[in-house]
Amino acid sequence: MGSGKKTSTTPFHSSKTASSATVNFLALPLAVRDKIYKRVLFIPHPLYLFQEPGSRVECFGPDRPSQWLALLYTNRQINREASAALYGVNQFHLVDITEQQVGLLQSFVDCIGPVNAASLSHLCINFPVAESIHGQPGNFKLRDDSLQTLEILQDKCPNLSTLDTLVHSENCGVFKKTDDLLQEALSLIDAHFKSISSLKRIIVRFEVFGGIPSASAKTFMQGLGWIVVSRDGNRR
After folding, report:
1. Confidence category of residue 50, pLDDT binned at 50, 70, 90
2. For the chain, how many structural domains are there in total?
3. Distance CA 19, CA 133 (A)
4. DSSP-derived secondary structure for 6-50
């Protein structure tokens, strides 16, 4: 997922014409260059992040243009400017529904570095898991991996404006609780979401059937300001 190739490896630098074009491009106002970067690098569907054990983070994007990232390898200045656009305009989905997703997120932000992580605006993660506190009926805490995930986002992604979350078979247990307990758990999760001050949109996507979420749960989540998307794609 990195963009750290040395500029000497790109064929563009063997061409005087290409070098001249680069100079002329950099003569454009930064605002104009930024619009060009965003138009060239925007992908109209999610980019899926995954990681095999012991391997680096990989990115899969259906129908990505073959030379999609060529712009990043033109020179250092364009790489820096274009990278900000790349991570700012696209949405990245973490493909891991287990408790290990936090490791994937940490690897991703480490891989792209703090400057690029600060440009991220749209991420999709597992919906946080709230667990009952032993010996304290009705009280909840976030499971360690969920808490660590939100702490990484708060610390490393200061411009994250949209947080997409997925409810699936591995993390839907809280939605089977009674309304009063569910609302207590969702309120806790909402408080953690709100600790990420840059967030403007919270989306909760349900990938499960079986009456989840209930009508009352949908209403409560909407009251928190969340966008609720059912499995059929309808927004509530």
Report:
1. very high
2. 1
3. 62
4. -GGGSGGGG-HHHHHHHHHHHTS-HHHHHHHHHHHH--SS-EEEE
Q: Provide the domain limits for residue 199.
A: 26-230
Residue matched to tokens 């060009």: 36
- pTM for this model (two decimals): 0.86
Per-residue confidence at 195, pLDDT binned at 50, 70, 90? Answer: very high
Coil, helix or strand for 130?
Answer: strand
Contacts of residue 9, Cβ cutoff 8 Å, sequence gap at least 6:
73
Is residue 36 assigned to a domain?
Answer: yes
Report whether pLDDT(60) > 50: yes
In a domain, 14, yes or no: no
- 202 lies in some domain: yes
**Measured between alpha carbons, how far is 122 from 201 in angstroms, rounded to an integer?**
9
User: Is residue 142 helix, strand or coil?
Assistant: strand
* Continuous H helices in 135-174: 144-156
pLDDT in tens, 112-157: 999 999 999 999 999 999 999 988 888 999 999 999 999 999 999 9
User: Is residue 16 assigned to a domain?
Assistant: no
